[in-house]
Amino acid sequence: MLKALFARKKSSRPFKDYHSEWFNTLKNTLLPLLRSSISDSVPTLFTHVEMLHQHFQSYYEALDLAASHDVSQLLFPYWRNSLEKPFLWLGDLHPYLFTNLLRSFLEDTDEEEETDDEFNADVVRENYKYLFGKPWEVAMAWKNPSRNLTTRVDQIECGLRLMVPALVDRVRNAQAGLVERVAEDWVRYQGRKEAARPVIVEAVEAKMEEMVSVFLDANRMRRSVLAEIISATSVYQGALFLEGLAQFLVGLRDPQLLAQFESCQMPLNKPSRIAL
Amino acid sequence: MARKFVIEECGDEIDGISEKFQCLALHKNQTAKRVEEFLLENQSLWRQEQKNRAAKLEKQLKVRWELEELIEEQLNRFHAHYCRAMVPTQLKDVARLLMPKWPPQELASLTWLGDWRPSAMLNLVHGLACSSLSLTSYLSESDSMGNKQLLSQLIHEMRIEEAILDEEMAEIQATCILHIPFNPINNSSSGSALGCIHSEFKKIEHVITKAQNLRFKALELVVKKVLSQTDAAEFLVTFEGIQDVIHQYAANQRFQKGPVTVSAKVSKCT
């Protein structure tokens, strides 16, 4: 048994280290590569989009693999900072976040179309100031998105509206089942902790198995939404989408912002404005 | 006159009788005294017994009052804990409350938004009531079916309230990317990142506060509306006991398993 334990230790490493390395690759290598390809419109853009997409996919695969060791630590990852933790849903990003980000690009386009009729020069100038130096394809990436794309987003959202509540229900039912079962065992052993312990432990272990299954399903959902978005969008759209997503993750771990966040004394439960 | 004579005659007669039965009377006096003594003793015993029994009852009543006070006190403590101590006041409190430093298996087993799920507290009563040995008065009451229906109804209502908060929280988690301006596109219009984070965390603070109130509401319902006093005490003992067993197990698991790992082969990032 000890041998097996050592073998495991040798062939595996803490997920915390993996996550840290994964994040650094995202921040220091893949995001800068994607950005330079976006601004230069070099033929490597397609490759860089695919690399970043695969980087996300491999992260979810790693989460799945680690779940068999201890899903509870992945659901409540201590290696995430205080800024990230509140935004985690079943251990990672909420799948609606992906579709909302995509929608925000599409809706920006709708707003621009509305103003097009009146030709609001300021708005166009504002946009071009931001897009200055970027190739026309990137600047126009979200102009007149194909009907195919909007239909596809509707379909993805429709699927999520069915699957997300079902997962939430499974978590709740698993907790309810555990508590009822443990209460019955407790009574059977007349509240003697030592006697009740083995059956309670068994109930908790069964609950953890269900949580592994829920966690894998949540990751499957995140992976498939990402894959569908990348396949439904053009390479320029996909590039801007992934840039926004990666930038968000990098922003949440920005050391300077985190230091400000940790030392912020502004009360939460009183109406207030932050002047910074 | 005649009457006086009769009395005198009677008096003589009585005197005569008393003389005749002097010995017997003496004896009789002693018996009466003994009877009296016996009665007195009996009465005193009876009084004593009454006193003892009343004292025992009083003791039990005091125990009951003490129990009532203890339950009330514990509810007050839960109120102070959930509704005052465990609500976020600063940004960094939010993560600490949503993911407290409990062993992760305990978090994954029992928690919802950072502590016991309110409907699970009611599930605990249901589990106890379904086992024939416990919550006897709860079960033996003639309207136990009514009680069970009430409990199911409360579980249903509590789940609806939880689902509303789940949706509020999901909305925040799903739209945070649009409200926090890490994206250069949003940066110019949306103000500072910390200001935006503050407003997102404020929304989460509302959700947490409502969740804490809901937890207390569930506990108060169980203790005051659903269960009798003794059952409520039994529930509170079980509530702590079960959490303790799960906590010990989870802490042990955390120690045995160590930090979660992933296979080195598949985890190359480059």
UniProtKB/TrEMBL annotation, chain A:
PANTHER family: DOG1 DOMAIN-CONTAINING PROTEIN, PROTEIN INAPERTURATE POLLEN1. This is DOG1 domain-containing protein. Residues 12-262 form the DOG1 domain. One of its GO terms (molecular function) is sequence-specific DNA binding. InterPro entries: Seed_Dev/Stress_Resp_Reg (IPR051886), TGA_domain (IPR025422). GO terms for biological process: DNA-templated transcription. It comes from the Eukaryota. Pfam families: DOG1 (PF14144). PROSITE patterns: DOG1. It comes from Quercus rubra (Northern red oak).
Automatic annotation (TrEMBL), chain B:
Residues 36-256 form the DOG1 domain. Pfam families: DOG1 (PF14144). PROSITE patterns: DOG1. GO terms for molecular function: sequence-specific DNA binding. GO terms for biological process: DNA-templated transcription. It comes from the Eukaryota. This is DOG1 domain-containing protein. It comes from Quercus rubra (Northern red oak).
